[in-house]
Amino acid sequence: MTYTLSHHIDGQLQASNSPRKSELYNPATGEIIGHVPLADLSEVDKAVAAAKKAFPAWADTPPVKRARTLFKFKTLIEQNLEELAMIVTREHGKTIEDAKGSIIRGLEVVEFMCGAPNLLKGSFSDEVGPGIDCYSLRQPLGVCAGITPFNFPAMIPLWMFPAAIVCGNTFVLKPSERDPSCSMRLVELAYEAGLPQGVINVVHGDKVAVDAILTHPDIAAVSFVGSTPIAEYVQQTAIAHGKRVQAFGGAKNHAIIMPDADVEQTADAIAGAAFGSCGQRCMAVSVAVAIGDEVADKLVARIAEQAKRLRIGPGNQPNIDMGPLVTPQHYAKVKSYLDLGVEEGAKLVVDGRDFKHTDYPNGFYLGANVFDHVTPSMRIYKEEIFGPVLCIVRVSSESEALNLINTHQYGNGTAIFTRDGDSAREFARRVQAGMVGINVAIPVPVAFHSFGGWKRSIFSDLGMYGSESVQFNTKLKTITARWPTGIRHQSAYVMPTHE
C-alpha cells in the first residue's frame, strides 16, 4: 500500500495540483512506498502568501507567549519520539537508535530556543547625551524559508524553523523530496502545540520549488543545508534577490591520529564516525590521517576488523549497526567512487561493494569500505562521497597532517586524537576548520553554541542554531530618544556629539 503526501499550507493539508511527483522508497527493501508532489510556482506562492498573512499578528505576539508554544511543541516531540524515529527509518534507512539520536539533537535546539525571551533582549544606555537615552531592539524579518537535506529529515528542520518562528518570523519549509514525511509530522505537532494558522507552511518539490523560494519577493531570508555546488548557488541566487542567506555545503572531515594516541580506542571512534548512518552525514570522518606507518598499520588493522563485523540490515530491526543508503541513485553514486578509488591506485582493504542482504536483496545496502595508501591527488580524497567509505592517508609528521587539512577545499569539521595537551591546543588554534574535536570524532556543537564550517563548507557569515541563529533571524533596530524636559534647545546644524 503506497501513500501520497500533500503540502501543508495555511494550517491544513492541501493536495497538490502539480502533475509532477517523485517516488519515495523504503531503502531497506528497495520498494516504492509512496509519492511526493513536486510543487509548481503557484503552490509556492500560496505557501508564501499564507506565511505573509500570518506574520503581522505572530510578530506582535509577545516573545514569552511564542516561547510557551515552542515549549509545548518540545513536549509533543518527546511524547512522539518513537513514532518520529520510525518515520525517519522508513524513508531514510537510519537505524532506529540513530534516528532517535538525531531527533534528540534537534530537540536540544528547540529546548534552547525556548529561552528566546532572554535571547531577544536588547540593550539600554541611559543619558548618552543631555536628556537622551539609546536602546536597541531585535525584531523579526518577515517570511523565512528553509531548504533541508535528506540525511537528517528531522534534525535539520528542527535547527531551522523553531528558531525562526520563536523570533517572530513565519516560515516556509521545503524538505528533501527523498524523505519528507517526518518534516510533515513535525509541522503537525507544531500546530497541535497551538501555533496560529499559516505560521509554518510546507511545500514539497525539486529545483522548481527551490528557485521559486530563492527568487520570491516576499521571502526575507533563506536557510539551506546540502551539497557545496547547490549551497553556493543558493547563496548567490538568494543574495541577488535581496535576501539574507545561510547556506551550508559539503565536507571532507579529517581525523589526525598522533603517535601517542590510544590506537584501539581511536580506531573504534573513527569507525563509528565513518560508518554510522551509512556515512551519510556532513560531520562523518571520511579521512583518517595516520602519523607514521606504525600507527597506520595498527589503525588499519583495527578499523578493518570493525568494518567487517558491522551488522548491516533494516534500521527497524534490533542490534543493527548500519542501514542502507537512501536511494538507488545514491547507491550507484557511492559505488562508482569505490570503483574509481581502485582505478586511482588506492588499496581497498575492506571491500563492501558486493554486500547483499539475504532477506532483502533489493535493498540499497553497501558494506563498509576502507581505502589505505590514499594520496591527496586522488578524487576519492578530494571529493565528498557521502557513503560508508573511509580513506587512510599516511604522513610522517603533524605539520604535514595539518597542511593536508588546511589546503583542502572543505573545512567543516576535524579531529585530533592524542594524549598531548600541547599538540591538541596548537592543532585547535591552527587548523582551518569550523568545528574541532579533541579525542572527539564528531564535534557537532551543543545547542547553545553554533554549528558552522569554514571554506567551501559554508556560504554565510552566521552559524546555525545557538546565539548566531537569533542574529540571523532578526534585524537590529537602535533608537535614540529625548523627551521634553522644559529646556528649550536651539537648532543645530552640525553632527550631534556628547559635548
Description:
The chain is an alpha/beta fold and 499 residues long. The protein has 2 domains: 3-249 and 458-479, Aldehyde Dehydrogenase, Chain A, domain 1, CATH 3.40.605.10; 253-438, Aldehyde Dehydrogenase, Chain A, domain 2 (3-Layer(aba) Sandwich), CATH 3.40.309. 39% of the residues lie in helices and 22% in strands. It has helices spanning 41-60, 63-79, 81-92, 96-113, 116-119, 155-166, 181-192, 207-215, 228-240, 263-275, 293-309, 328-344, 379-382, 398-407, 421-430, 466-472; strands at 3-4, 7-9, 12-14, 21-26, 31-37, 124-129, 132-140, 143-147, 170-174, 200-202, 219-225, 244-248, 253-257, 285-291, 347-350, 369-372, 389-395, 410-411, 413-417, 435-438, 454-455, 474-482. The strands form 6 sheets. The chain has a 7-stranded mixed beta sheet, sandwiched between helices. Helix 9 links the parallel strand 11 (219-225) and strand 12 (244-248). Helix 3 (81-92) packs antiparallel against helix 7 (181-192) and helix 10 (263-275) crosses helix 11. The chain starts with a strand and ends in a 17-residue tail after the last strand. The relative contact order is 0.14. The mean pLDDT is 96.
Short description:
The protein is of the alpha/beta class. It contains 16 helices and 22 strands. The protein has a seven-stranded mixed beta sheet, sandwiched between helices.
Write the layout of secondary structure elements.
Layout: E1 3-4, E2 7-9, E3 12-14, E4 21-26, E5 31-37, H1 41-60, H2 63-79, H3 81-92, H4 96-113, H5 116-119, E6 124-129, E7 132-140, E8 143-147, H6 155-166, E9 170-174, H7 181-192, E10 200-202, H8 207-215, E11 219-225, H9 228-240, E12 244-248, E13 253-257, H10 263-275, E14 285-291, H11 293-309, H12 328-344, E15 347-350, E16 369-372, H13 379-382, E17 389-395, H14 398-407, E18 410-411, E19 413-417, H15 421-430, E20 435-438, E21 454-455, H16 466-472, E22 474-482
Parallel strand pairs: 1-5, 8-9, 8-11, 9-10, 11-12, 13-14, 13-19, 14-17, 16-17, 19-20
Antiparallel strand pairs: 2-3, 4-5, 6-7, 7-22, 15-16, 18-21
